[in-house]
Give the backbone structure.
Amino acid sequence: MAHPKDANPERPGVQTVRRTKKLPFALQLGFFAGLIWGAVRWLFYYFGFTDVVPGFLVEPFFLHDYLAGTAGYLVGYASFIGMSIVAALIYTFTAYKLRGPWPGVAFGLLWFVLVYLVAGPMLGMLLPLGKLDWDSIWLDGSIFLLWGVFIGYTVNFEFTDERRRDDELPIPGLH
């Protein structure tokens, strides 16, 4: 039986579907996107698959030697989570109606281009793309692509699910 708060008093047997609030959803999504994909990126650095330190996002604010140590790894991990929260907020409030995985792919690639080609070399976070090794470029590009798909597809599923399109849906078995 449905909880009394969930029941619609105007239409017995019909439960009101609650809409997801975008801000808390985006904050939570960004946190978990950063937590998951930041951990994957850190593991790839730890095993030597990429030469770009986990704290590359805060490289202008910290010494490189500090970022190459344990405390620097944690700062880098936290900065990746912070970037993911910002990215999830942007995607949730601008592209929440887009469907399928392709907008997330484009979103991840856009962030890779912005970070690795534009902001990274300009701000001293990264070497110019021509001076990075190909393993780092491909690996980090792939991580950003998957990270973008994770954010995009999660937002897509939450806000374009056809089953929840109407404000009120009858729930089978509650009549």
Remarks:
- Helices lie at 22-46, 64-67, 70-94, 102-123, 134-159.
- The chain has one domain: 20-157.
- DSSP finds five helices and two strands in the chain.
